[in-house]
Specification:
This protein has about 230 residues and is an all-alpha fold. It contains 11 helices and no strands. It starts with a helix and ends in an 8-residue tail after the last helix.
């Protein structure tokens, strides 16, 4: 099992470290580390590029979110494919451990990318892509919850945190009833919740003090002299 584990750590990290937010922003002449929240994640890219380039910028922000999800899904799925193809001389029942290690490495790579001086995003989209492979029902529930909270409050950070919290809850319930997903996946989803909460600690502080930035609809922003806050 040593070779699969070491390989998953390396491949997972470098997949996660691909700095799509930074690259897409730079292609438009924007240093995302100097704009908005100075975070290269999809949320800040969407906010900054939308303000600068309108609908075209919004599409680019959505593209970054999708790409970050894809790299999380790829980091999680490739060990399963390798096991099925017999690439490794290792027991099939350990597939979940190797996939989870690869996903965890991808989250670290995304948040501390070697390509951007170990700065990165908060891992929500990358984690969502990985868990879409491991627990599709739970992640779809989490995405629905994210949308409901965001539409109600317009806080991306709050929606992301609460959606992530729902993962160990829904997956734990399903494990108790059907024995699936594997309990290791339930545990790691709890770990992901802690990871996302830690990465959002500054947002949590601003939410508690009522100073967190909202995504304001264009029609609402036009009514406000200062624009969106």
């Amino acid at each position: 099992m040593l070779i699969p584990i070491l390989t998953s750590i390396v491949v997972g990290y470098f997949l996660g470290a691909l700095p799509f937010g930074f690259l897409v922003s730079r292609a438009k002449g924007v240093d995302i580390f100097q704009e908005g929240s100075k975070n290269p994640g999809a949320t800040n890219v969407l906010r900054v590029l939308s303000a600068k380039f309108g609908r075209a910028g919004k599409r680019l922000g959505i593209t970054v979110f999708v790409l970050d999800m894809v790299k999380g899904a790829a980091a999680t799925a490739w060990p399963v494919i390798a096991f099925k193809m017999g690439v490794w001389d290792a027991p099939w029942e350990h597939w979940d451990v190797v996939s989870l290690i690869s996903l965890g490495s991808a989250l670290l790579g995304h948040s501390f990318s070697c390509f951007t001086r170990f700065k990165g995003g908060k891992g929500v989209a990358t984690g969502a892509g990985g868990f879409l492979v491991l627990m599709p029902v739970s992640i779809l529930i989490a995405l629905l919850l994210w949308w409901l909270i965001f539409e109600t409050t317009r806080y991306v950070s709050l929606a992301s945190i609460l959606a992530t919290v729902s993962l160990p809850v829904t997956s734990g319930i399903m494990w108790c009833i059907w024995g699936w997903p594997p309990f290791s996946v339930v545990l790691i989803s709890g770990g992901a919740t802690v990871f996302v909460a830690v990465r959002h600690r500054s947002n949590i502080g601003r939410l508690m003090h009522g100073t967190e930035n909202k995504f304001v609809k264009k029609s609402e922003a036009e009514k406000t002299p200062d624009g969106p806050h």
